[in-house]
Amino acid sequence: MAPGSISNISKLKALKCVEISGKKISRVITELENYGVRDLRINELAIRIGEYDINGLQRLEECFNLESLDTFQFETKYCKLPDTSERDLKGFFSRLVNVKNLYLSPEILAFANIMGEFKPNTLEMFAFKQTSHDLDSIYHELEKHLRNQEASIVAIRTGGYHPLLYFKDAFECVFEVHWKVDVDLIRYMKENSSRYPKLKHLIIGNNYCFIERYGKEVVNIKRLG
């Protein structure tokens, strides 16, 4: 949040998106409370921090209505998460009951059961920063993270951090492609049309594939670029 923006936030009646970057979350929450911000209803919330702050994370609900969020982005930049944070994060994520678009950084996804806190087959867009540039390895990461979201997922993006607006708008863009398409994810989709039945967009780095379906059985993969 930019300097001076906090004092005016309650006056922005059409506010839909908030990004907290740099500061400790608890410090931002305290400032918001000082200006009388309570139960703020927005659609999109992004958090990008360099210091893990579980107290601030737990206090987000004091200022933001978590049930109104449909997009949530959380990056812990350059910091190692303590082992105890898995329990805290799972408790927080379990309250994001209406989130459909999700970005999480590798430090958070490293906890094996963290994605289990989201209701099965409710996510539509999922983005994460891959830990490998090998496409088959990326596929196996997706399998692990999305095993309970196959039936609903429409778009998948991997790569580095992007602001919330770009996170969603990227699926409207066309990228230059230098990529072989016979990786596991696409091969499995061709062999079994029940895999990811709603998936239309797959972006790995700057490689973009658009997925066309004819009926329920045939899948055509188009590389755009």
Explain what you see:
This protein is α/β, with parallel strands linked by helices. Helices cover 26% and strands 21% of the residues. The two termini are 35 Å apart. The chain folds into two domains: 116 residues, no CATH class; 106 residues, no CATH class. It comes from Spathaspora passalidarum (strain NRRL Y-27907 / 11-Y1). This is DUF38 domain-containing protein.
Would you spell out the secondary-structure blueprint of this structure?
Elements: E1 17-21, H1 25-34, E2 44-49, H2 54-63, E3 71-76, H3 85-93, E4 101-104, H4 106-109, E5 125-128, H5 135-145, E6 155-158, H6 164-169, H7 184-191, E7 201-204, E8 207-214, E9 218-223
Parallel strand pairs: 1-2, 2-3, 3-4, 4-5, 5-6, 6-7
Antiparallel strand pairs: 7-8, 8-9
Helix pairs in contact: 1-2
Keywords:
elongated, alpha/beta, 2 domains, nine-stranded mixed beta sheet, DUF38 domain-containing protein, 225 residues, 7 helices
Short description:
With 225 residues, the protein is an alpha/beta fold.
